[in-house]
Amino acid sequence: MAHPTQLGFQDAASPVMEELLHFHDHALMIVFLISTLVLYIIIAMVSTKLTNKYILDSQEIEIVWTILPAVILVLIALPSLRILYLMDEINDPHLTIKAMGHQWYWSYEYTDYENLGFDSYMVPTQDLAPGQFRLLETDHRMVVPMESPVRILVSAEDVLHSWAVPSLGVKMDAVPGRLNQTAFIASRPGVFYGQCSEICGANHSFMPIVVEAVPLEHFENWSSLMLEDA
Amino acid sequence: MTDEGGKNQGMKVMGILDIQNTPCARESILHGAGGSLVAGLVHFLATSRVKRSFDVGVAGFMLTTLGSWFYCRFNNAKLRVQQRMIQDGIKNKVIYEGTNLDPTQKKTGDQ
Protein backbone atom coordinates (compact mmCIF):
# COMPACT_ATOMS: atom_id res chain seq x y z
CA MET A 1 0.00 0.00 0.00
CA ALA A 2 1.00 3.63 -0.24
CA HIS A 3 3.06 5.20 2.54
CA PRO A 4 3.46 8.86 3.47
CA THR A 5 5.70 11.01 1.23
CA GLN A 6 5.75 8.24 -1.35
CA LEU A 7 6.63 9.45 -4.86
CA GLY A 8 7.07 6.22 -6.81
CA PHE A 9 4.81 3.29 -7.54
CA GLN A 10 3.76 0.73 -4.97
CA ASP A 11 5.44 -2.70 -5.12
CA ALA A 12 4.01 -4.79 -7.93
CA ALA A 13 1.63 -7.61 -7.03
CA SER A 14 0.88 -8.79 -10.56
CA PRO A 15 2.99 -9.57 -13.63
CA VAL A 16 1.44 -6.68 -15.56
CA MET A 17 2.38 -4.21 -12.86
CA GLU A 18 5.93 -5.59 -12.83
CA GLU A 19 6.16 -4.90 -16.55
CA LEU A 20 4.75 -1.40 -16.02
CA LEU A 21 7.37 -0.72 -13.35
CA HIS A 22 10.13 -1.84 -15.68
CA PHE A 23 8.81 0.31 -18.48
CA HIS A 24 8.63 3.26 -16.11
CA ASP A 25 12.30 2.73 -15.17
CA HIS A 26 13.18 2.63 -18.86
CA ALA A 27 11.28 5.83 -19.70
CA LEU A 28 12.68 7.57 -16.62
CA MET A 29 16.27 6.76 -17.59
CA ILE A 30 15.67 8.32 -21.01
CA VAL A 31 14.07 11.37 -19.37
CA PHE A 32 17.04 11.62 -17.01
CA LEU A 33 19.53 11.60 -19.91
CA ILE A 34 17.59 14.22 -21.85
CA SER A 35 17.38 16.39 -18.74
CA THR A 36 21.13 16.07 -18.21
CA LEU A 37 21.78 17.07 -21.80
CA VAL A 38 19.45 20.07 -21.63
CA LEU A 39 20.97 21.21 -18.34
CA TYR A 40 24.44 20.97 -19.81
CA ILE A 41 23.41 22.92 -22.90
CA ILE A 42 21.85 25.65 -20.74
CA ILE A 43 25.03 25.97 -18.69
CA ALA A 44 27.14 26.02 -21.85
CA MET A 45 24.94 28.69 -23.46
CA VAL A 46 25.00 30.87 -20.37
CA SER A 47 28.73 30.62 -19.77
CA THR A 48 30.03 31.05 -23.31
CA LYS A 49 31.73 34.20 -24.48
CA LEU A 50 31.14 33.36 -28.13
CA THR A 51 28.46 35.21 -30.09
CA ASN A 52 27.65 34.78 -33.74
CA LYS A 53 25.01 37.05 -35.16
CA TYR A 54 25.27 35.81 -38.73
CA ILE A 55 24.10 32.20 -38.59
CA LEU A 56 21.55 31.69 -41.37
CA ASP A 57 21.20 27.93 -41.39
CA SER A 58 22.91 24.83 -40.12
CA GLN A 59 21.96 21.62 -41.83
CA GLU A 60 23.97 19.28 -39.61
CA ILE A 61 22.46 20.25 -36.27
CA GLU A 62 18.98 20.36 -37.78
CA ILE A 63 19.40 16.81 -39.02
CA VAL A 64 20.68 15.70 -35.61
CA TRP A 65 17.89 17.28 -33.62
CA THR A 66 15.28 15.82 -35.95
CA ILE A 67 16.56 12.27 -36.15
CA LEU A 68 17.62 11.91 -32.52
CA PRO A 69 14.19 12.69 -31.00
CA ALA A 70 12.58 10.35 -33.55
CA VAL A 71 14.91 7.56 -32.47
CA ILE A 72 14.24 8.27 -28.80
CA LEU A 73 10.49 8.18 -29.41
CA VAL A 74 10.78 4.82 -31.17
CA LEU A 75 12.83 3.47 -28.23
CA ILE A 76 10.03 4.52 -25.88
CA ALA A 77 7.13 3.50 -28.12
CA LEU A 78 8.15 -0.10 -28.76
CA PRO A 79 8.10 -1.32 -25.13
CA SER A 80 5.06 0.87 -24.51
CA LEU A 81 3.04 -0.79 -27.27
CA ARG A 82 4.21 -4.20 -26.09
CA ILE A 83 2.82 -3.57 -22.63
CA LEU A 84 -0.34 -2.02 -24.02
CA TYR A 85 -1.17 -5.22 -25.87
CA LEU A 86 -0.01 -7.35 -22.93
CA MET A 87 -2.53 -5.55 -20.71
CA ASP A 88 -5.34 -6.37 -23.15
CA GLU A 89 -4.74 -10.11 -23.05
CA ILE A 90 -7.40 -12.09 -21.22
CA ASN A 91 -6.01 -15.58 -20.69
CA ASP A 92 -8.81 -17.96 -19.76
CA PRO A 93 -9.77 -16.59 -16.33
CA HIS A 94 -10.44 -19.05 -13.52
CA LEU A 95 -12.89 -16.70 -11.82
CA THR A 96 -15.16 -13.84 -12.83
CA ILE A 97 -16.21 -11.19 -10.35
CA LYS A 98 -18.59 -8.30 -10.96
CA ALA A 99 -17.64 -5.06 -9.25
CA MET A 100 -20.53 -2.59 -9.17
CA GLY A 101 -20.01 1.01 -8.14
CA HIS A 102 -22.64 2.75 -6.04
CA GLN A 103 -22.80 6.04 -4.21
CA TRP A 104 -20.72 5.46 -2.13
CA TYR A 105 -19.60 1.86 -1.86
CA TRP A 106 -18.65 -1.07 -4.04
CA SER A 107 -20.55 -4.33 -4.32
CA TYR A 108 -19.05 -7.58 -5.51
CA GLU A 109 -20.80 -10.56 -7.05
CA TYR A 110 -19.27 -14.00 -7.43
CA THR A 111 -21.77 -15.80 -9.64
CA ASP A 112 -19.65 -18.47 -11.35
CA TYR A 113 -20.89 -21.29 -9.15
CA GLU A 114 -23.27 -19.97 -6.49
CA ASN A 115 -24.86 -16.57 -6.05
CA LEU A 116 -22.50 -14.82 -3.69
CA GLY A 117 -22.81 -11.06 -3.40
CA PHE A 118 -21.91 -8.51 -0.76
CA ASP A 119 -21.37 -4.80 -0.27
CA SER A 120 -18.05 -3.28 0.68
CA TYR A 121 -18.31 -0.10 2.75
CA MET A 122 -15.41 1.92 4.09
CA VAL A 123 -14.73 1.45 7.79
CA PRO A 124 -15.30 4.88 9.41
CA THR A 125 -12.29 6.39 11.12
CA GLN A 126 -13.82 6.15 14.57
CA ASP A 127 -14.44 2.41 14.12
CA LEU A 128 -10.92 1.48 13.04
CA ALA A 129 -9.09 -1.17 15.03
CA PRO A 130 -5.42 -0.52 15.98
CA GLY A 131 -3.19 -1.13 12.96
CA GLN A 132 -5.91 -0.55 10.39
CA PHE A 133 -5.50 2.11 7.71
CA ARG A 134 -7.59 5.27 7.69
CA LEU A 135 -9.86 5.75 4.64
CA LEU A 136 -8.63 2.47 3.13
CA GLU A 137 -10.18 -0.36 5.11
CA THR A 138 -13.53 -1.88 4.21
CA ASP A 139 -15.93 -4.10 6.13
CA HIS A 140 -15.82 -6.82 3.44
CA ARG A 141 -12.82 -7.44 1.24
CA MET A 142 -12.88 -8.80 -2.28
CA VAL A 143 -11.08 -12.11 -1.82
CA VAL A 144 -9.42 -13.76 -4.81
CA PRO A 145 -7.27 -16.86 -5.18
CA MET A 146 -3.60 -16.06 -5.73
CA GLU A 147 -1.78 -16.99 -8.93
CA SER A 148 -5.09 -17.47 -10.75
CA PRO A 149 -6.27 -15.26 -13.61
CA VAL A 150 -9.28 -13.29 -12.39
CA ARG A 151 -11.66 -11.39 -14.66
CA ILE A 152 -13.36 -8.32 -13.21
CA LEU A 153 -16.50 -6.95 -14.86
CA VAL A 154 -16.91 -3.37 -13.75
CA SER A 155 -20.06 -1.31 -13.94
CA ALA A 156 -22.00 1.23 -11.93
CA GLU A 157 -25.54 1.62 -10.66
CA ASP A 158 -25.78 5.39 -10.57
CA VAL A 159 -22.93 7.69 -11.63
CA LEU A 160 -19.44 7.20 -12.99
CA HIS A 161 -16.97 5.46 -10.70
CA SER A 162 -13.61 3.81 -11.35
CA TRP A 163 -12.27 0.59 -9.88
CA ALA A 164 -8.54 0.92 -9.31
CA VAL A 165 -5.91 -1.08 -7.42
CA PRO A 166 -2.45 0.39 -8.10
CA SER A 167 -0.34 -2.53 -6.90
CA LEU A 168 -2.20 -4.88 -9.25
CA GLY A 169 -1.86 -2.44 -12.14
CA VAL A 170 -5.62 -2.28 -12.63
CA LYS A 171 -7.90 0.66 -13.27
CA MET A 172 -11.23 0.46 -15.07
CA ASP A 173 -14.04 2.97 -15.32
CA ALA A 174 -17.41 1.96 -13.95
CA VAL A 175 -19.99 3.39 -16.34
CA PRO A 176 -23.73 3.01 -15.72
CA GLY A 177 -25.28 0.85 -18.43
CA ARG A 178 -21.91 -0.43 -19.64
CA LEU A 179 -19.90 -3.49 -18.73
CA ASN A 180 -16.13 -3.03 -18.78
CA GLN A 181 -13.76 -5.95 -18.47
CA THR A 182 -10.33 -6.17 -16.96
CA ALA A 183 -8.21 -8.99 -15.59
CA PHE A 184 -5.28 -9.57 -13.31
CA ILE A 185 -3.23 -12.28 -11.66
CA ALA A 186 -2.21 -11.72 -8.04
CA SER A 187 1.29 -13.20 -8.00
CA ARG A 188 1.62 -13.22 -4.23
CA PRO A 189 -0.72 -13.43 -1.25
CA GLY A 190 -1.53 -10.17 0.45
CA VAL A 191 -3.93 -7.31 0.90
CA PHE A 192 -3.98 -4.67 -1.83
CA TYR A 193 -5.68 -1.32 -1.47
CA GLY A 194 -7.20 1.02 -3.99
CA GLN A 195 -9.61 3.92 -4.12
CA CYS A 196 -12.41 5.09 -6.38
CA SER A 197 -10.78 6.97 -9.23
CA GLU A 198 -13.63 8.90 -10.82
CA ILE A 199 -15.36 11.80 -9.10
CA CYS A 200 -18.75 10.58 -8.02
CA GLY A 201 -20.11 12.93 -5.42
CA ALA A 202 -19.60 13.96 -1.84
CA ASN A 203 -18.07 10.70 -0.60
CA HIS A 204 -15.96 9.90 -3.65
CA SER A 205 -12.86 9.76 -1.43
CA PHE A 206 -14.53 7.38 1.00
CA MET A 207 -15.29 4.31 -1.08
CA PRO A 208 -12.07 2.31 -1.10
CA ILE A 209 -11.32 -1.05 -2.66
CA VAL A 210 -9.56 -3.86 -0.81
CA VAL A 211 -8.45 -7.00 -2.62
CA GLU A 212 -7.20 -9.91 -0.53
CA ALA A 213 -5.26 -12.62 -2.39
CA VAL A 214 -5.16 -15.95 -0.59
CA PRO A 215 -4.28 -19.56 -1.46
CA LEU A 216 -7.07 -21.43 -3.23
CA GLU A 217 -8.16 -23.53 -0.25
CA HIS A 218 -8.51 -20.40 1.88
CA PHE A 219 -10.55 -18.82 -0.89
CA GLU A 220 -12.84 -21.86 -0.98
CA ASN A 221 -13.29 -21.73 2.81
CA TRP A 222 -14.01 -18.01 2.68
CA SER A 223 -16.62 -18.36 -0.07
CA SER A 224 -18.33 -21.21 1.81
CA LEU A 225 -18.48 -19.08 4.96
CA MET A 226 -19.82 -16.09 3.05
CA LEU A 227 -22.54 -18.22 1.45
CA GLU A 228 -23.57 -19.58 4.84
CA ASP A 229 -23.77 -16.07 6.29
CA ALA A 230 -25.80 -14.76 3.37
CA MET B 1 8.09 5.77 9.04
CA THR B 2 8.48 2.24 7.76
CA ASP B 3 9.42 1.56 4.15
CA GLU B 4 7.83 -1.12 2.02
CA GLY B 5 9.60 -4.46 2.31
CA GLY B 6 12.60 -2.98 4.15
CA LYS B 7 13.78 -1.04 1.08
CA ASN B 8 16.12 1.88 1.79
CA GLN B 9 15.06 5.36 0.74
CA GLY B 10 17.05 5.29 -2.49
CA MET B 11 19.35 8.04 -3.62
CA LYS B 12 17.60 10.02 -6.34
CA VAL B 13 19.82 11.52 -9.01
CA MET B 14 18.43 14.87 -10.17
CA GLY B 15 15.53 14.16 -7.83
CA ILE B 16 13.95 11.64 -10.19
CA LEU B 17 16.08 8.56 -10.80
CA ASP B 18 16.25 6.23 -7.79
CA ILE B 19 19.66 4.61 -8.32
CA GLN B 20 19.61 2.17 -5.43
CA ASN B 21 16.23 0.58 -6.05
CA THR B 22 16.09 0.63 -9.86
CA PRO B 23 17.77 -2.45 -11.38
CA CYS B 24 20.72 -1.60 -13.66
CA ALA B 25 20.56 2.15 -12.84
CA ARG B 26 23.61 2.26 -10.60
CA GLU B 27 25.76 0.25 -13.01
CA SER B 28 24.66 2.36 -15.97
CA ILE B 29 25.42 5.66 -14.23
CA LEU B 30 28.83 4.38 -13.10
CA HIS B 31 29.67 3.11 -16.58
CA GLY B 32 28.49 6.43 -17.96
CA ALA B 33 30.70 8.35 -15.58
CA GLY B 34 33.67 6.21 -16.53
CA GLY B 35 32.94 6.54 -20.23
CA SER B 36 32.55 10.29 -19.90
CA LEU B 37 35.88 10.60 -18.11
CA VAL B 38 37.69 8.48 -20.66
CA ALA B 39 36.15 10.20 -23.69
CA GLY B 40 36.74 13.71 -22.34
CA LEU B 41 40.29 12.96 -21.27
CA VAL B 42 41.28 11.31 -24.54
CA HIS B 43 39.82 14.20 -26.53
CA PHE B 44 41.63 16.74 -24.38
CA LEU B 45 44.93 14.91 -24.63
CA ALA B 46 44.52 14.76 -28.40
CA THR B 47 43.33 18.31 -29.01
CA SER B 48 44.02 20.39 -25.85
CA ARG B 49 40.60 22.02 -26.31
CA VAL B 50 38.95 22.24 -22.91
CA LYS B 51 35.41 23.25 -23.77
CA ARG B 52 35.07 20.84 -26.65
CA SER B 53 36.45 18.06 -24.42
CA PHE B 54 33.69 18.77 -21.93
CA ASP B 55 31.16 18.47 -24.75
CA VAL B 56 32.69 15.17 -25.80
CA GLY B 57 32.62 14.04 -22.18
CA VAL B 58 28.91 14.76 -21.86
CA ALA B 59 28.21 12.98 -25.14
CA GLY B 60 30.29 10.06 -23.92
CA PHE B 61 28.33 9.97 -20.67
CA MET B 62 25.02 9.83 -22.49
CA LEU B 63 26.06 7.20 -24.99
CA THR B 64 27.79 4.97 -22.44
CA THR B 65 24.91 5.23 -19.97
CA LEU B 66 22.36 4.46 -22.65
CA GLY B 67 24.36 1.54 -24.03
CA SER B 68 25.03 0.04 -20.61
CA TRP B 69 21.39 0.56 -19.61
CA PHE B 70 19.97 -1.21 -22.66
CA TYR B 71 22.42 -4.09 -22.39
CA CYS B 72 21.75 -4.61 -18.69
CA ARG B 73 17.95 -4.26 -19.01
CA PHE B 74 17.87 -6.70 -21.93
CA ASN B 75 19.74 -9.32 -19.90
CA ASN B 76 17.56 -8.55 -16.90
CA ALA B 77 14.42 -9.10 -19.01
CA LYS B 78 15.77 -12.43 -20.28
CA LEU B 79 16.48 -13.52 -16.70
CA ARG B 80 12.98 -12.54 -15.61
CA VAL B 81 11.42 -14.58 -18.40
CA GLN B 82 13.58 -17.57 -17.42
CA GLN B 83 12.68 -17.09 -13.76
CA ARG B 84 8.98 -17.05 -14.59
CA MET B 85 9.31 -20.17 -16.74
CA ILE B 86 11.17 -21.97 -13.95
CA GLN B 87 8.55 -20.91 -11.40
CA ASP B 88 5.74 -22.16 -13.63
CA GLY B 89 7.65 -25.36 -14.30
CA ILE B 90 8.13 -26.04 -10.57
CA LYS B 91 4.49 -25.26 -9.88
CA ASN B 92 3.28 -27.54 -12.69
CA LYS B 93 5.61 -30.33 -11.58
CA VAL B 94 4.25 -30.16 -8.03
CA ILE B 95 0.65 -30.04 -9.22
CA TYR B 96 0.82 -32.71 -11.92
CA GLU B 97 3.36 -35.14 -10.43
CA GLY B 98 2.03 -38.68 -10.56
CA THR B 99 -0.86 -37.80 -12.85
CA ASN B 100 -1.14 -38.44 -16.56
CA LEU B 101 -0.45 -34.73 -17.17
CA ASP B 102 3.02 -35.07 -15.65
CA PRO B 103 5.42 -33.90 -18.41
CA THR B 104 8.25 -36.14 -17.17
CA GLN B 105 5.96 -39.16 -17.28
CA LYS B 106 5.06 -38.45 -20.92
CA LYS B 107 8.73 -38.59 -21.93
CA THR B 108 9.34 -41.95 -20.24
CA GLY B 109 6.03 -43.24 -21.65
CA ASP B 110 7.19 -42.55 -25.20
CA GLN B 111 10.29 -44.68 -24.84
UniProtKB/TrEMBL annotation, chain B:
GO biological process annotation, one example: mitochondrial respiratory chain complex IV assembly
This protein's UniProt keywords: Membrane, Mitochondrion, Mitochondrion inner membrane, Transmembrane, Transmembrane helix
GO cellular component, one term: mitochondrial inner membrane
Regions crossing the membrane: 28-46, 53-71
Superkingdom, natural source: Eukaryota
Record localization: Mitochondrion inner membrane
InterPro entries associated with the record: Cox20
A Pfam cross-reference name: Cox20
Predominant subcellular localization, coarse grouping: mitochondrion
Family named by the database record: Belongs to the COX20 family.
Designated name of the protein: Cytochrome c oxidase assembly protein COX20, mitochondrial
Annotated source species: Carassius auratus (Goldfish)
Origin organism lineage: Eukaryota, Metazoa, Chordata, Craniata, Vertebrata
